Protein backbone atom coordinates (compact mmCIF):
# COMPACT_ATOMS: atom_id res chain seq x y z
CA UNK A 1 0.00 0.00 0.00
CA UNK A 2 1.25 3.47 -0.82
CA UNK A 3 1.04 6.17 1.81
CA UNK A 4 0.15 9.76 1.07
CA UNK A 5 3.21 11.89 0.56
CA UNK A 6 3.48 15.60 0.22
CA UNK A 7 6.69 16.13 -1.70
CA UNK A 8 7.17 17.49 -5.21
CA UNK A 9 4.07 19.65 -5.31
CA UNK A 10 3.66 22.84 -7.30
CA UNK A 11 4.54 26.01 -5.35
CA UNK A 12 0.99 27.24 -5.27
CA UNK A 13 -2.29 25.94 -6.52
CA UNK A 14 -2.71 28.81 -8.93
CA UNK A 15 0.52 27.75 -10.63
CA UNK A 16 -1.63 25.27 -12.45
CA UNK A 17 -4.16 26.98 -14.67
CA UNK A 18 -7.70 25.70 -14.78
CA UNK A 19 -8.75 24.29 -18.09
CA UNK A 20 -6.23 21.51 -18.58
CA UNK A 21 -8.46 18.54 -19.22
CA UNK A 22 -6.67 15.20 -19.43
CA UNK A 23 -7.12 11.96 -21.30
CA UNK A 24 -7.49 8.76 -19.31
CA UNK A 25 -6.72 5.48 -20.99
CA UNK A 26 -7.53 2.25 -19.15
CA UNK A 27 -5.85 -0.74 -20.72
CA UNK A 28 -6.82 -4.32 -19.99
CA UNK A 29 -7.81 -3.56 -16.40
CA UNK A 30 -8.80 -6.57 -14.31
CA UNK A 31 -9.64 -6.46 -10.62
CA UNK A 32 -10.03 -8.88 -7.77
CA UNK A 33 -11.34 -8.81 -4.21
CA UNK A 34 -9.40 -11.67 -2.64
CA UNK A 35 -9.79 -14.62 -5.01
CA UNK A 36 -12.88 -13.21 -6.65
CA UNK A 37 -12.38 -11.53 -10.01
CA UNK A 38 -14.81 -8.66 -10.45
CA UNK A 39 -13.48 -6.94 -13.59
CA UNK A 40 -12.18 -8.64 -16.72
CA UNK A 41 -9.86 -6.90 -19.16
CA UNK A 42 -11.60 -3.54 -19.26
CA UNK A 43 -10.12 -1.19 -21.84
CA UNK A 44 -11.58 2.27 -22.30
CA UNK A 45 -10.27 5.55 -23.65
CA UNK A 46 -11.77 8.57 -21.91
CA UNK A 47 -10.75 11.51 -24.11
CA UNK A 48 -9.95 15.00 -22.87
CA UNK A 49 -12.90 17.35 -22.87
CA UNK A 50 -15.55 14.63 -23.04
CA UNK A 51 -18.06 13.20 -20.61
CA UNK A 52 -17.92 9.40 -20.50
CA UNK A 53 -20.90 7.67 -18.88
CA UNK A 54 -20.52 4.22 -17.34
CA UNK A 55 -23.81 2.37 -17.37
CA UNK A 56 -24.88 -1.14 -16.42
CA UNK A 57 -26.71 -3.09 -13.70
CA UNK A 58 -25.65 -3.05 -10.04
CA UNK A 59 -22.67 -5.19 -9.18
CA UNK A 60 -21.02 -5.14 -12.61
CA UNK A 61 -17.96 -3.29 -11.37
CA UNK A 62 -18.58 0.34 -12.32
CA UNK A 63 -17.59 1.75 -8.92
CA UNK A 64 -14.62 -0.59 -8.75
CA UNK A 65 -13.48 0.65 -12.14
CA UNK A 66 -13.84 4.30 -11.03
CA UNK A 67 -11.82 3.62 -7.88
CA UNK A 68 -9.10 2.05 -10.00
CA UNK A 69 -8.97 5.23 -12.06
CA UNK A 70 -7.83 7.29 -9.07
CA UNK A 71 -5.98 4.65 -7.08
CA UNK A 72 -8.58 4.21 -4.37
CA UNK A 73 -8.92 0.50 -5.18
CA UNK A 74 -5.45 -0.25 -3.85
CA UNK A 75 -6.47 1.08 -0.43
CA UNK A 76 -9.10 -1.66 0.04
CA UNK A 77 -7.65 -4.63 1.96
CA UNK A 78 -7.44 -7.72 -0.27
CA UNK A 79 -8.06 -5.76 -3.47
CA UNK A 80 -5.66 -6.31 -6.36
CA UNK A 81 -5.58 -5.35 -10.01
CA UNK A 82 -3.83 -5.87 -13.31
CA UNK A 83 -3.54 -3.65 -16.36
CA UNK A 84 -2.61 -0.03 -16.84
CA UNK A 85 -4.22 3.36 -16.37
CA UNK A 86 -2.57 6.13 -18.36
CA UNK A 87 -3.21 9.81 -17.69
CA UNK A 88 -1.99 11.76 -20.70
CA UNK A 89 0.24 8.82 -21.51
CA UNK A 90 1.79 8.35 -18.04
CA UNK A 91 0.88 5.29 -15.96
CA UNK A 92 -0.74 6.50 -12.73
CA UNK A 93 0.43 3.24 -11.09
CA UNK A 94 4.08 3.63 -12.10
CA UNK A 95 6.27 3.13 -8.98
CA UNK A 96 7.76 6.62 -9.25
CA UNK A 97 4.34 8.24 -9.56
CA UNK A 98 3.14 9.60 -6.26
CA UNK A 99 -0.30 8.78 -4.96
CA UNK A 100 -0.76 12.43 -4.09
CA UNK A 101 -0.20 13.43 -7.69
CA UNK A 102 -2.82 10.94 -8.85
CA UNK A 103 -5.25 12.30 -6.28
CA UNK A 104 -4.64 15.87 -7.31
CA UNK A 105 -5.08 15.13 -11.00
CA UNK A 106 -8.10 12.89 -10.61
CA UNK A 107 -10.91 14.01 -8.31
CA UNK A 108 -13.93 12.01 -7.17
CA UNK A 109 -17.51 12.87 -6.24
CA UNK A 110 -19.62 10.19 -4.60
CA UNK A 111 -23.27 9.21 -4.57
CA UNK A 112 -23.88 10.54 -1.09
CA UNK A 113 -22.76 14.15 -0.73
CA UNK A 114 -19.93 14.07 1.80
CA UNK A 115 -18.80 17.57 2.72
CA UNK A 116 -17.13 17.89 6.13
CA UNK A 117 -20.39 18.77 7.91
CA UNK A 118 -19.00 20.85 10.77
CA UNK A 119 -16.44 22.65 8.62
CA UNK A 120 -17.39 25.96 7.02
CA UNK A 121 -18.36 26.17 3.36
CA UNK A 122 -15.16 28.12 2.72
CA UNK A 123 -12.97 25.57 4.48
CA UNK A 124 -14.69 22.69 2.70
CA UNK A 125 -13.73 24.13 -0.67
CA UNK A 126 -10.07 24.48 0.24
CA UNK A 127 -9.86 21.28 2.31
CA UNK A 128 -8.42 19.27 -0.56
CA UNK A 129 -5.44 21.57 -0.95
CA UNK A 130 -3.80 20.44 2.25
CA UNK A 131 -4.68 16.79 1.71
CA UNK A 132 -2.91 16.77 -1.63
CA UNK A 133 -0.02 18.90 -0.42
CA UNK A 134 -0.82 22.04 -2.40
CA UNK A 135 0.02 25.37 -0.79
CA UNK A 136 -2.10 28.48 -1.29
CA UNK A 137 -1.99 31.95 0.23
CA UNK A 138 -5.08 33.52 1.77
CA UNK A 139 -5.85 35.73 -1.26
CA UNK A 140 -5.36 32.74 -3.53
CA UNK A 141 -7.78 30.76 -1.40
CA UNK A 142 -10.33 33.57 -1.51
CA UNK A 143 -10.06 33.62 -5.27
CA UNK A 144 -10.29 29.85 -5.52
CA UNK A 145 -13.33 29.62 -3.27
CA UNK A 146 -15.25 32.09 -5.42
CA UNK A 147 -14.05 30.51 -8.65
CA UNK A 148 -14.84 26.93 -7.65
CA UNK A 149 -18.20 27.70 -6.06
CA UNK A 150 -19.12 29.65 -9.20
CA UNK A 151 -18.17 26.74 -11.43
CA UNK A 152 -20.17 24.38 -9.24
CA UNK A 153 -23.18 26.69 -9.56
CA UNK A 154 -23.29 27.49 -5.83
CA UNK A 155 -21.63 30.88 -5.43
CA UNK A 156 -24.70 33.07 -5.61
CA UNK A 157 -26.50 30.98 -3.02
CA UNK A 158 -23.72 30.91 -0.45
CA UNK A 159 -21.51 33.96 -0.99
CA UNK A 160 -23.00 35.69 2.06
CA UNK A 161 -22.59 32.70 4.36
CA UNK A 162 -19.23 31.16 3.61
CA UNK A 163 -18.58 30.70 7.33
CA UNK A 164 -21.64 28.53 7.88
CA UNK A 165 -21.11 24.79 8.18
CA UNK A 166 -21.25 22.70 5.01
CA UNK A 167 -23.66 20.36 6.75
CA UNK A 168 -26.29 23.12 6.93
CA UNK A 169 -26.78 23.11 3.16
CA UNK A 170 -29.45 21.11 1.32
CA UNK A 171 -28.48 17.79 -0.27
CA UNK A 172 -28.13 19.27 -3.74
CA UNK A 173 -26.10 22.20 -2.42
CA UNK A 174 -23.87 19.81 -0.48
CA UNK A 175 -23.19 17.86 -3.66
CA UNK A 176 -22.28 21.07 -5.47
CA UNK A 177 -20.01 21.95 -2.56
CA UNK A 178 -18.31 18.58 -3.04
CA UNK A 179 -17.84 19.38 -6.72
CA UNK A 180 -16.33 22.76 -5.77
CA UNK A 181 -14.01 21.00 -3.32
CA UNK A 182 -12.86 18.63 -6.06
CA UNK A 183 -12.21 21.51 -8.45
CA UNK A 184 -10.05 23.43 -5.98
CA UNK A 185 -6.98 21.31 -6.68
CA UNK A 186 -7.39 21.84 -10.43
CA UNK A 187 -7.94 18.22 -11.42
CA UNK A 188 -7.62 17.08 -15.01
CA UNK A 189 -10.24 14.40 -14.48
CA UNK A 190 -13.40 14.35 -12.38
CA UNK A 191 -14.90 10.97 -11.51
CA UNK A 192 -18.53 10.99 -10.40
CA UNK A 193 -20.16 7.87 -8.95
CA UNK A 194 -23.93 8.26 -9.29
CA UNK A 195 -23.70 11.88 -8.12
CA UNK A 196 -27.43 12.51 -8.45
CA UNK A 197 -28.88 9.29 -7.04
CA UNK A 198 -29.55 10.89 -3.67
CA UNK A 199 -30.91 14.16 -5.10
CA UNK A 200 -34.27 15.56 -6.16
CA UNK A 201 -34.98 16.25 -9.87
CA UNK A 202 -34.24 19.98 -9.68
CA UNK A 203 -30.88 19.44 -7.98
CA UNK A 204 -30.16 16.68 -10.47
CA UNK A 205 -30.71 19.00 -13.41
CA UNK A 206 -28.43 21.60 -11.90
CA UNK A 207 -25.65 19.06 -11.46
CA UNK A 208 -26.14 17.88 -15.04
CA UNK A 209 -25.86 21.47 -16.25
CA UNK A 210 -22.68 21.91 -14.19
CA UNK A 211 -21.23 18.73 -15.71
CA UNK A 212 -21.76 20.08 -19.23
CA UNK A 213 -20.19 23.42 -18.30
CA UNK A 214 -17.20 21.83 -16.59
CA UNK A 215 -16.26 19.40 -19.31
CA UNK A 216 -14.49 22.16 -21.18
CA UNK A 217 -11.86 22.22 -18.49
CA UNK A 218 -12.00 18.82 -16.83
CA UNK A 219 -12.63 15.42 -18.35
CA UNK A 220 -15.57 13.72 -16.67
CA UNK A 221 -16.37 10.06 -16.08
CA UNK A 222 -19.82 9.59 -14.56
CA UNK A 223 -21.58 6.43 -13.38
CA UNK A 224 -25.33 6.67 -13.75
CA UNK A 225 -28.33 4.38 -13.58
CA UNK A 226 -30.44 7.00 -15.25
CA UNK A 227 -30.53 6.42 -19.00
CA UNK A 228 -32.01 9.84 -19.72
CA UNK A 229 -29.19 11.38 -17.73
CA UNK A 230 -26.58 9.39 -19.66
CA UNK A 231 -28.09 10.74 -22.86
CA UNK A 232 -28.28 14.30 -21.58
CA UNK A 233 -24.76 14.60 -20.22
CA UNK A 234 -22.42 12.18 -21.97
CA UNK A 235 -20.50 12.22 -25.22
CA UNK A 236 -19.67 8.53 -25.03
CA UNK A 237 -21.01 5.59 -23.07
CA UNK A 238 -19.61 2.29 -21.88
CA UNK A 239 -22.01 -0.51 -21.01
CA UNK A 240 -20.74 -2.81 -18.26
CA UNK A 241 -22.22 -6.22 -17.55
CA UNK A 242 -21.36 -9.10 -15.22
CA UNK A 243 -23.16 -12.12 -16.58
CA UNK A 244 -23.94 -14.94 -14.17
CA UNK A 245 -20.82 -15.81 -12.25
CA UNK A 246 -18.49 -13.91 -14.57
CA UNK A 247 -16.55 -10.75 -13.76
CA UNK A 248 -17.78 -7.39 -15.02
CA UNK A 249 -16.69 -6.42 -18.51
CA UNK A 250 -17.54 -3.82 -21.13
CA UNK A 251 -20.05 -5.22 -23.60
CA UNK A 252 -20.13 -2.18 -25.83
CA UNK A 253 -18.92 1.39 -25.89
CA UNK A 254 -19.14 4.26 -28.29
CA UNK A 255 -20.73 7.65 -28.93
CA UNK A 256 -23.79 8.06 -26.70
CA UNK A 257 -26.09 8.88 -29.59
CA UNK A 258 -25.18 5.63 -31.37
CA UNK A 259 -25.37 3.51 -28.21
CA UNK A 260 -28.95 4.57 -27.67
CA UNK A 261 -30.19 4.74 -31.27
CA UNK A 262 -28.36 1.82 -32.85
CA UNK A 263 -26.78 -0.41 -30.18
CA UNK A 264 -24.78 -3.23 -31.74
CA UNK A 265 -25.22 -5.83 -29.01
CA UNK A 266 -28.67 -7.17 -28.11
CA UNK A 267 -27.80 -6.97 -24.40
CA UNK A 268 -27.04 -3.24 -24.75
CA UNK A 269 -30.31 -2.73 -26.55
CA UNK A 270 -32.18 -4.57 -23.80
CA UNK A 271 -30.48 -2.57 -21.07
CA UNK A 272 -30.82 0.92 -22.54
CA UNK A 273 -34.45 0.20 -23.30
CA UNK A 274 -35.14 -0.83 -19.72
CA UNK A 275 -35.67 -4.52 -20.41
CA UNK A 276 -33.48 -5.57 -17.47
P1 LIG B 1 -21.33 -1.44 -9.31
O1 LIG B 1 -20.75 -0.13 -8.94
O2 LIG B 1 -21.42 -1.66 -10.79
O3 LIG B 1 -22.65 -1.69 -8.66
P2 LIG B 1 -19.18 -2.55 -7.72
O4 LIG B 1 -17.92 -2.11 -8.37
O5 LIG B 1 -19.60 -1.86 -6.50
O6 LIG B 1 -20.35 -2.60 -8.81
O7 LIG B 1 -19.04 -4.08 -7.34
C1 LIG B 1 -18.54 -5.05 -8.26
C2 LIG B 1 -18.43 -6.38 -7.52
O8 LIG B 1 -17.39 -6.29 -6.55
C3 LIG B 1 -19.69 -6.76 -6.78
O9 LIG B 1 -19.87 -8.15 -6.88
C4 LIG B 1 -19.39 -6.37 -5.35
O10 LIG B 1 -20.07 -7.21 -4.45
C5 LIG B 1 -17.90 -6.58 -5.25
N1 LIG B 1 -17.28 -5.65 -4.29
C6 LIG B 1 -17.34 -4.30 -4.35
N2 LIG B 1 -16.64 -3.75 -3.33
C7 LIG B 1 -16.12 -4.78 -2.63
C8 LIG B 1 -15.29 -4.89 -1.45
N3 LIG B 1 -14.84 -3.78 -0.81
N4 LIG B 1 -14.96 -6.12 -1.01
C9 LIG B 1 -15.38 -7.22 -1.67
N5 LIG B 1 -16.17 -7.20 -2.76
C10 LIG B 1 -16.53 -6.00 -3.24
MG1 LIG C 1 -21.53 1.42 -7.81
Q: Could you describe the 3D structure shown?
A:
The chain is of the alpha/beta class and 276 residues long. Helix content is 33%, strand content 23%. The protein has 10 helices and 10 strands. The protein has a 6-stranded mixed sheet with strand order 6-7-8-3-9-10, with helices on both faces. The chain has a 4-stranded antiparallel sheet with strand order 2-1-4-5, with helices on one face. Strand 4 and strand 5 (90-91) form a beta hairpin. Helix 4 (138-151) packs across helix 6 (171-183). The radius of gyration is 18 Å and the shape is globular. The termini are far apart. Residues 1-11 have low confidence and may be disordered. The structure holds adenosine-5'-diphosphate and magnesium ion. Magnesium ion (MG) binds next to helix 1.
Brief characterization of the structure:
The protein is built from ten helices and ten strands.
Amino acid sequence: MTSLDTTAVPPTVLARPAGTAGTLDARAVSAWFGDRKVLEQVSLLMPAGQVTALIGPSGCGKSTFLRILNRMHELIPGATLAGEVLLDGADIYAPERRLTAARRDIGMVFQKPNPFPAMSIYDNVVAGLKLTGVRASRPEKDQLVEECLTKAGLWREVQDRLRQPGGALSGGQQQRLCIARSLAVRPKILLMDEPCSALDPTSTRRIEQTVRELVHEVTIVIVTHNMQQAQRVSDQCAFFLAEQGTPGAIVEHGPTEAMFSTPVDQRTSDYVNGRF
